[in-house]
Each structure stands twice: as C-alpha cells, then as structure tokens.
Design brief:
This protein is an all-alpha fold and about 300 residues long. It is built from eleven helices and no strands. The longest helix has 28 residues.
Length: about 300
C-alpha cells in the first residue's frame, strides 16, 4: 500500500456489507428476468414466461430484504420513499425497485393463476420496461461514490452490470424451462455471458493501472473465477449441456459482482488509486489544482 499523510488512506473504505453484492446480483436478475418473461409471452412461450416471471418475483422480493439488512433498520428503507430526488441514484433506484416489485408481483400472479387480468395488461409491459433501469441503476449507485475503481469505471460499469443481468436471467430461465421452449433463453444466456466477458475486459483495460485491484488479492481471484465459470458455462450451453452450463453462467455472474465489490475496498484502501486519477485530471487541465512537478534548475544556478 502507498501511504498518505500520517500513513492513513485518503478515503474511507465502503461501509457496505456482504448483502450489497448479493443485492446487485438479485436486482439484475429480477430486471432482466421480467423483460425476458414479457417477451416470452409475446412469442407465445407460456411455460417459459411463467417460470421466468417466478424467477423475477423471487429476485425482486429478495432485493429490498438484502438492502434493508445492510441498512440495519427497516425504517431506513421506508424513509427513502419520503422524497424523490432525481440527483440521487439511491432515491431513484428505490422507487424503481418498488414499482418493479409491484408490477412483477401482479404479472406473476396473473401468469400462474389468471388473477388480475386488467391490472396485468399494464403491469406486464411496465415490469419489462423497468427491467433495464433495475438491472443497471446499481452501477450508477456504485459509480457515484468516491471509490476509485467504481467512479472511474462509470462509462462502462453499467454495461458490465447489464450484461451480467442478461447472463444470469438467461441462465436461470434456461435451467428452469422445458427443453422445447429453451431456445430464447439459450440465446440470452450465451449472448449475455459473451457480452459480460467482453465488457469486463474493456472496463479493466480502460482503467489501466487503476484496475490493478481486479488482478490481485481476493478481487483478482474472484474475477478469474467469474471468467472461468462464465466461459465454461457458455461453452457447455453451446455444446448442448443445458442445465449444468446454465448454472455455471449464473454462478459466474454472481462471482463477477463480488469481484467488483471487493475491488472497491482494495482501491479505497490504497491512496495511490485515489490521488493518481486526481493528479492526472489536473495535468490534463480537466480540473483545477496544483500538479506536482520536478523543479527546473536555471543555467546560472550552482550545483
């Protein structure tokens, strides 16, 4: 670790606990599954739609539970709905989560029992439309912090989260659906897996030296595991090994969320990841400040 003044890190590590990477994963799974379920209904694949709606409902129900556990008190989660703040990813995300949960619950009830036929006409497309922001708003939430590897990855982090959400939703639907209706789920699972591998690689490359936490320590091990699981799962699905391959893809998406989570802690703990990007922006003239430069000796100065 590079020491700052008094040997202390420049910023504090995130206070988020283990529930948050699980929340990232569950939200992505819920949002992408709701979109998949609605599209499956439009294609007439009712068995696939029913199972995917159920997956979306389980995941979107788990999301506020995980968030509340991290917050410590249910009242803190409820208090988020006292205002709607367009500049706060947490505020916007809370309202998206609540609206998506309600729409998904009505849609799932209709798909399995036939209840709420009128309400479901609005709820199903609403759940599908809310799927994308539900899958990606957590990327904006992380990027809005001062944690270097999250903040500096803001141009690509949402694409990583969206790809992982598609991969996990496709994998879950592929594992739970009958073989006759699994073609669409197979395409989404494999496409999402390939996209997740590509966008993760792009994110790490664009971070440059700042992306070192993704290659070392716990985050590095989790990242390598995620890539192996995702690639192996996609290859297995393409080869016709449906359910084991789908399970590997889902596990890979989950491991990738944990890798990103752990990388944030590592980058916040080392001052060079905080100070380096700030100095680089000053030297490029993007922000104001004093850049550290080596003093120049004049020709007349003595040695």
């Amino acid at each position: 670790m590079s020491d700052s003044y008094y040997g202390q890190p420049v910023i504090k590590e995130p206070i988020w606990t283990w529930e948050i990477p699980c929340y990232f994963f569950a939200g992505g799974l819920a949002g992408a599954s709701a979109t998949m379920a609605y599209l499956a209904e439009l294609r007439g694949e009712r068995d696939l739609a029913r199972r995917t709606w159920a997956t979306a409902l389980v995941a979107v129900t788990a999301s506020p539970v995980l968030l509340t556990m991290d917050l410590g008190k249910p009242s803190r989660f409820v208090n988020m709905f006292r205002v709607f703040k367009v500049t706060s990813p947490m505020s916007i995300g809370s309202w998206i989560l609540a609206a998506s949960g309600l729409a998904t619950a009505v849609s799932t009830a209709h798909a399995w029992t036939g209840l709420f036929p009128r309400a479901s006409r609005t709820a199903r497309p609403a759940a599908a439309l809310l799927g994308l922001p539900l899958s990606t708003y957590t990327a904006a939430l992380a990027a809005n912090t001062a944690v270097p590897v999250w903040h500096e990855a803001r141009p690509t982090l949402a694409f990583v989260f969206a790809s992982g959400a598609a991969a996990s939703a496709g994998g879950a639907s592929l594992a739970l659906s009958p073989a006759g209706e699994a073609r669409a789920a197979r395409r989404v699972a494999v496409g999402g897996a390939v996209s997740e591998l590509a966008t993760t690689q792009l994110m790490e490359r664009r971070l440059g030296e700042l992306g070192e936490p993704y290659h070392s320590g716990v985050s590095g091990r989790l990242g390598r595991l995620a890539k192996v699981l995702t690639a192996a799962g996609a290859a297995a699905v393409v080869a016709g090994v449906r359910r084991p391959g789908a399970a590997l893809i889902v596990a890979g998406a989950f491991a990738e969320r944990w890798s990103i989570f752990k990388a944030g802690f590592a980058s916040a703990a080392d001052p060079k990841y905080v100070v380096g990007p700030q100095r680089a922006r000053i030297e490029r003239g993007e922000t104001r400040g004093a850049a550290r430069r080596e003093p120049k000796l004049s020709a007349s100065s003595g040695s």
